[in-house]
Amino acid sequence: MKLLRHLPNTLTLCNLLFGVLAIMALVNEMITMMMVLMAGSLIADALDGALARKLGVDSALGLQLDSLADIVTFGVLPAMMLYYIGVHFGDGSIHHYVLGGFAALTSVSAGLRLGRFNIDVRPKDYFWGLATPAGGLMVAAWLWAQHTGIDYGLGVSSLPWLNIIVPIFLVIFYQAALKLPGLKSPKAGMITLIVLVLVILIGTILHGAIAIFLGVIVYIGLGLVNLVVKWY
């Protein structure tokens, strides 16, 4: 039983380990391996908090470790992916320094988002602003779509200014006080999330990873609409 108490923090450290290894894989242009490692990070990140609550071992250390791991996996890694996208798939019309600057800003915004989450006193049944794992997944899906050549025209070879627009989108919506549904949301929010996830899954099966990229944008759009409609 004592060993089980350490399982949530062990999963958090696995998230960090996989994130660092994913960065190494990206640097070496091992895109498939990077995606597998990032998937491992996402699974570990989803399980650590749930297990901590289930076992009743929530702790200040676990909270800090979680944010430290997430800033690497869902802050630094996506920033490097954005830079990689611009350099390897772009048409060269945007200077590498500019690509790097805008990509790096997303990691800064992610860090601020994670720091604020730790001290946020608002109810945790909804996300307030885009969660960094969702932002990281969005970037990873966009990279995979271009890597496989199934981006349906949403690649930087045809739309180079997406290299600027996507980072700005993430910088803004990591901080925007939008109410977004999550796994701990009440019924209305949970139904909204389930329907969206099912649509994204079907879209991914039919059209590839670009559906995930677009799905996160729709997710943000739902938050914007909810400011007026308030259905969840």
Task: Name the descriptors.
single chain; 232 residues; mainly alpha; Four Helix Bundle (Hemerythrin (Met), subunit A); 9 helices; 2 strands; 75% helix; 3% strand
Structure explained in plain terms:
With 232 residues, this protein is an all-alpha fold. The chain has one domain (2-229): Up-down Bundle (Four Helix Bundle (Hemerythrin (Met), subunit A)), CATH 1.20.120.1760. The protein has nine helices and two strands. The chain has helices at 2-5, 7-27, 31-55, 60-89, 96-119, 132-147, 162-175, 187-207, 210-229, and strands at residues 126-128, 179-181. A two-stranded antiparallel sheet has the order 1-2. Helix 3 runs antiparallel to helix 4 and helix 4 runs parallel beside helix 6. The longest helix has 30 residues, at 60-89. It is globular. The chain starts with a helix and ends with a helix. The model has no long low-confidence stretch (mean pLDDT 94).
The overall strand count is 2
- Principal-axis shape: globular
| Helical run tally | 9
Distance between the termini: 39 Å
CATH topology: Four Helix Bundle (Hemerythrin (Met), subunit A)
Which CATH architecture?
Answer: Up-down Bundle
Mean pLDDT over all positions: 94
Summarize the amount of helix as a percent range: over 70%
Question: Could you name the ranges where pLDDT drops below 50 across 5 or more consecutive residues?
Answer: none
**Biggest sheet overview:** 2 strands, antiparallel
Quaternary class: single chain
Going across the biggest sheet, name each strand in turn: 1-2
Q: Quickly name the level 1 CATH class.
A: Mainly Alpha
Give me the CATH superfamily.
CDP-alcohol phosphotransferase transmembrane (TM) domain
Overall radius of gyration: 17 Å
| Beta-strand content estimate | under 5%
Order of helices and strands: HHHHHEHHEHH
Structural class: mainly alpha
